[in-house]
Amino acid sequence: MGAHKDLLVSYSRLTQEEVEAFYVEWGIGLKYNLSIALHCRHFKFSNLRHPFSIFVLNVLEYYGVSFGQIHPQGLARVLHFEVLCRGSGYDPSLLSFRCFFCLAKNSNWFTFETSKVDTCLVSSMVTTLGAWKDRFFWVSESIVPFKMIWRHLDTVTNGNPLILN
User: Fold this and answer.
1) CA distance 128 to 161
2) How far apart are the first and last CA of the chain?
3) Which helix (H) or strand (E) holds 114?
4) In this structure, what are the phi and psi dihedrals at residue 122, rounded to the nearest 5 degrees?
5) What pLDDT does residue 20 have?
6) Contacts of residue 154, Cβ cutoff 8 Å, sequence gap at least 6
7) Which of 70, 126, 138, 139 is most buried, judged by most C-beta within 10 A?
8) What angle do CA 2, 5, 6 make, to 5 degrees?
9) Are 50 and 26 in contact (CB under 8 A)?
10) For strand 101-106 and strand 109-114, is the pairing parallel, antiparallel, or unpaired?
């Protein structure tokens, strides 16, 4: 299942009761319209929390990608970077993140891969997540303070941000 090209015609395996229980467990309001896709693995594997951190939102806005397009491992790298910065007494910044990571395509998904620096921030990462693509739910765009867009899969991912006209 691809990020955008199949998501709108795909079916989640979650029942309505499972979605409502997930909303309660992770602190997401129940009164949202359906316009942004979130995968359960973003929360359970990547450790995403709502309300979302300003740093995570800055990264997604800068690269012009939506939550529904980011592979959970890529989102985990963003969140690990944030935790490492805060644990070291620094505020995470987009500039410092870009020194260590770059946007990349992983099949029909976007992720963040380590750039060509010698320093390794995370020593190991789970390499497989099993079946995760069919466990998603929709929330309102009002949970994000900017207009979240879908980055086209053919867009160059050489580290430059998406430029909107």
Assistant:
1) 28
2) 29
3) strand 109-114
4) -120, 120
5) 84
6) none
7) 70
8) 60
9) yes
10) antiparallel
Q: What residue segments make up the domains of the chain, in order of their start?
A: 7-119+134-143
CB 81 within 8 A of CB 100: yes
- Give the pLDDT confidence score for residue 76 in this predicted structure: 92
Q: What is the pLDDT of residue 132?
A: 73
Write the DSSP assignment of 4-20 as a string of letters.
Answer: STTGGG---S--HHHHH
pLDDT at residue number 32: 53
**Helices 72-87 & 54-63 angle (0-180, nearest 10):** 130
Average pLDDT by consecutive 10-residue portion of the chain (165 residues)? Answer: 51 81 79 74 88 94 91 92 95 94 88 76 58 79 81 68 44
Question: Which pLDDT score is estimated for 34?
Answer: 64
Nearest to 109 by CA among 12, 35, 5: 5
Kindly list the distances between the CA atom of residue 19 and the CA atoms of 3, 28, 124, 130, in Å, as whole numbers in the listed order.
20, 10, 31, 20
Helix (H) or strand (E) holding 106: strand 101-106
Cα gap 2→6, rounded to integer Å: 5
